[in-house]
Amino acid sequence: LYVCTLGYGECYVNGERIGDEVLDPGWTDYEERVLYDSYDVGDALEAGENALGLWLGNGWFNKNSRDWTGGGAPRAILQLHVGYADGRTRTVSTDSSWRAAPSPIVENDIYDGETYDARRERPGWATPGFDDTDWASASVVDAPGGDLLPQQTPPIRVIKTIETESISDGEDGPVADFGQNLTGWVELHASNASARSDTPIRHAQELPKAGSLALVALRSADAPDTYAARGAVPGPYHPRFPNHRIRYPQVT
């Protein structure tokens, strides 16, 4: 399976995530080089029907800022090569027969955070038999222009889960302390929430005074993640496509 997603993306086969890379593929000058990943998915395929799915995020490809203009809406190209026991082969590729729909990720930006609305989840969206009749046909769009090349640098991965060392009262909600600065995400677990509740998670590397986040170090980044619950037992939730520098997260 060969997959290129721009900006970031996740690939699914029969509902299961393929690979453990995050914020992938790497950032390049998309007019010069475009990177793809390769996976052996033979064990993930089944006799009979199979389903492929792509979940796309903006990443650097669709990053708009004062010094960078993005390349447009996220996009992907995929090709699956299947070899059968009797010697037959088959190739499956992305084209206009694929189906597409907005995901629960309402907004996402590598530095400005993510807004996730769990009420928009589509359980089973990447599994055989999913009813996609209310989805639209995928749009065929232009390639960004660069050569399509295999990604050879080591990918970014989650390497450790760090528990909070303490939680204190803050001006706008409890502030946790991981005990060190890190690059990563907050994973939110909630045992009860109404279907209309929003939970913002803000991030800071310093506390100028007890309970007050120092957001000046983030410069122009507006870096909250917001989770909108879908009912009585939401989560666990963590964002997919931002990149946060954190020591002190605040959950409101």
Structure, explained:
This protein is mostly beta strands. Helix content is 0%, strand content 35%. The protein has no helices and 21 strands. It has a 5-stranded mixed beta sheet with strand order 8-7-1-5-13, with no helix packed on it. A hairpin with a 3-residue loop joins strand 10 and strand 11. The radius of gyration is 20 Å and the shape is globular. It starts with a strand and ends with a strand. The model has no long low-confidence stretch (mean pLDDT 87).
Characteristics of this structure?
single chain; 252 residues; mainly beta; 5-stranded mixed β-sheet; 21 strands
Determine Rg (CA atoms, Å). 20 Å
The secondary structure category is: mainly beta
Helix share bin: under 10%
Give the SSE string: EEEEEEEEEEEEEEEEEEEEE
Terminal residue distance: 41 Å
The oligomeric status of these chains comes to single chain
Whole-number average pLDDT?
A: 87
Number of helices: 0
Shape field: globular
Largest pleated sheet: 5 strands, mixed
Strand content: 35-45%
Strand arrangement in the largest pleated sheet:
8-7-1-5-13
Number of strands: 21
Q: Could you outline the blueprint of secondary structure elements for this entry?
A:
Blueprint: E1 2-6, E2 8-13, E3 16-18, E4 21-22, E5 33-38, E6 52-57, E7 75-83, E8 89-93, E9 99-100, E10 105-109, E11 113-117, E12 136-137, E13 147-150, E14 156-157, E15 166-168, E16 175-177, E17 182-184, E18 198-204, E19 225-228, E20 244-246, E21 248-251
